[in-house]
Write a structure and sequence with these properties.
3-stranded antiparallel β-sheet, about 35% strand, alpha+beta, disordered N terminus, 4 helices, 8-stranded antiparallel β-sheet
Length: about 200
């Protein structure tokens, strides 16, 4: 169990550390190109199939990446627009063993809620969370899910970062669709991130 915890913690840490270099570079690129956020909201999505396991729709301006998180089954980005999406997953069996309720805990809390709280704690160790909303429950293509917005400061990055985390309960796995951008661009991309998350669908 300790090993699983460390792996999950490392996953989130990798994301936060990579945001530093990636976003600094993307900010510079955006200034060079003279593009405003309003020019970044082109319509048009592409459907991506991952390991014959699930499909996800992503903006056509985002391209497949390889350095955002080594444990992610999907990684897409657009450095110029500073938009990033990854998908992480954990086995439900492993999480149930890891997240055994302690004495006095509410045993009615769902697995996705417990997982979301754990990820929030891990994020809080890597960044200063300035704002978070109450997680909203929803159904995504027949699966229970929770969606959470977070804004905060990552050490070394001048601008705050906006994250949309969506935790989805599949048949045998818990999935997390995580998208992020600069907080200044939240209004431009939040609806797009919402569409990405809600497009998640298992193939079997």
């Amino acid at each position: 169990m300790l090993c699983q915890t460390l792996i999950m913690k490392q996953n989130i840490g990798i994301c936060c550390l990579l945001i530093l270099g990636i976003l600094l570079g993307s900010c510079i690129d955006s200034k060079k190109n003279g593009k405003s956020p309003a020019q970044s909201a082109e319509s048009g999505f592409q459907q991506v199939t991952v390991n014959n396991e699930y499909v996800l729709s992503l903006p056509k301006y985002m391209e497949q990446a390889s350095g955002l998180n080594n444990e992610a089954s999907l990684q897409y980005q657009n450095n110029t627009k500073a938009t990033y999406t990854i998908v992480l997953s954990e086995s439900k069996e492993g999480l149930e063993q890891l997240l055994v309720p302690k004495k006095g805990d509410n045993t009615d809390v769902s697995l996705i809620s417990q997982y979301g709280k754990m990820q929030l704690r891990l994020l809080n160790e890597s960044m200063k969370i300035k704002r978070k909303n109450t997680p909203s429950s929803l159904n995504i293509n027949g699966m229970d899910a929770e969606m959470l917005e977070i804004e905060g400061a990552v050490p070394g990055v001048e601008n705050d970062i906006f994250y949309l985390l969506t935790i989805i309960e599949g048949k045998s796995k818990i999935y997390m669709v995580m998208s992020w951008t600069l907080s200044d661009n939240k209004q431009v991309y939040s609806n797009t991130f919402d569409q990405i998350a809600k497009s998640f669908e298992l193939m079997n």
